[in-house]
Amino acid sequence: MITPSTHSIPASGNFCEVAAGVYWLRMPLPFALDHINLYILEADEGLYVVDTGVQSERSKAIWQQVLGALDKPVAGVIATHMHPDHCGLAGWLCQTYKVPLYMSALEYYGAIAYFSPNPGADTSVEADYFVKAGLSQTEAQSYVSDHSKYVDSVAPIPLAYRRLQAGKSLRIGNRQWQILTYGGHSPEHVCLFDAEANLLIGGDQILPYISPNIGVYSREPEAQPLTEYLLSLEQLKQLPPDTLVLPAHNQPYTGLHTRCDELAEHHQALLDRLLAHCKTPRSLVACLPVLYKRKLSGQMLFFALAEGLAHLNHLLKTGLVTRQCDEHGVYRYQTCENG
Asked: Which of 57, 54, 121 is CA-nearest to residue 90?
């Protein structure tokens, strides 16, 4: 059973203490998912910010208001992963307060690679990704050329960082945070677990009411994030069932094991739908109606393609579907006879 915490959702610019020395605030987002939960960890030397929100003047003003109210110096910035809502203001915070950035290696270098300019790079591989999915050349090109808003939502990433590694720990105040890292939603997503208090800062890895996007993108079209994500759910179930989870979206909650099972069942249901649908060869685009009931376009179509491909790649890896490229350069997926 998922049980939300009894803490009131903090209004914009406010915060509440969800555990001793652990503060929760919310930041608005300019996306369909319109908010992110951010956390501040208190220590004698100052405050450690966990995730940052996207780069915007409004987000900066909220940080200045909240940090001013807490009236302690900032000691560090921790980014759970490289997505803009989590690291968008990491550079600004680190520069403004002259503090280090803490990230896992794959997330840090992924952010550097994605959000740094790369003039002259061959973008045809990006277009191929969308054509293979079943989009027209014109549709494919519109996605290739429309990265500006995404990139603009991230301040320049600091040129140095402190590495967070699985199996190690981070001492902040009176809490010893175990560093856990998982694949699936992002390459090396960091979660922080306080075993004494059964407290987990979960980021996007394990959300209470929505499934984090598990996607395959043009940078690594043969990736297996769903395989990694399903493994992470099994690993998270090794934590105590009464753990209080502090997620990046929705509300803090208990019911970690239940939520892991629900998410695993959700993805299995999508896999089962694809197997039934692909009895005859289907493109990725042709598979989307069995995965999503709503009309898809723009950014929503972009993420739906990525998540659909993650599921098809998983089926391909497990030998349940085959993949052939047709005369138009479109991949067609078909369920194996014993699938």
From this structure: 54
Strands, sheet with 169-172, edge to edge from the N-terminal-most edge strand: 3-4, 253-254, 244-247, 199-203, 189-194, 175-182, 169-172
- 10 Å Cβ neighbour count for 292? 15
CATH superfamily of 3-278: Ribonuclease Z/Hydroxyacylglutathione hydrolase-like (3.60.15.10)
Strand 189-194 vs strand 3-4: parallel, antiparallel, or unpaired? unpaired
Q: Which amino acid is at 309?
A: L
Task: List the structure tokens of 222.
Answer: 């043969």
Alpha helix (H) residue ranges in 21-76: 57-70
Query: Over the stretch 46-67, which tens digit does the pLDDT of each residue have?
Result: 999 999 999 999 999 999 999 9
Residue 210 CB neighbour total at 10 angstroms: 12
HSE at residue 171, side-chain half, CA atoms within 13 A, is: 3
Treating both helix axes as pointing N-terminal to C-terminal, what angle do 256-277 and 298-317 enclose, rounded to 10 degrees? 80
For Cα atoms 59, 60, 64, give the angle at the middle one, nearest 5 degrees. Answer: 120
Domain ranges of the chain: 3-278
pLDDT per residue as tens digits for the range 246-295 = 999 999 999 999 999 999 999 999 999 999 999 999 999 999 999 999 88
In the chain, the largest separation of any two C-alpha atoms, in whole Å, equals: 65
Nearest-angstrom CA–CA distance, 50 and 323: 41
Say yes or no to pLDDT of 209 above 60.
yes
CA 335 to CA 169: how far, in whole Å?
A: 45
Distance CA(88)–CA(47), nearest Å, equals: 19
pTM for this entry: 0.96
Distance CA 261, CA 284 (A): 27
CA angle 48, 53, 59 (to 5 degrees): 100
> What is the Cα–Cα distance from 290 to 52, expressed in whole angstroms?
35
DSSP structural state of residue 58 = H
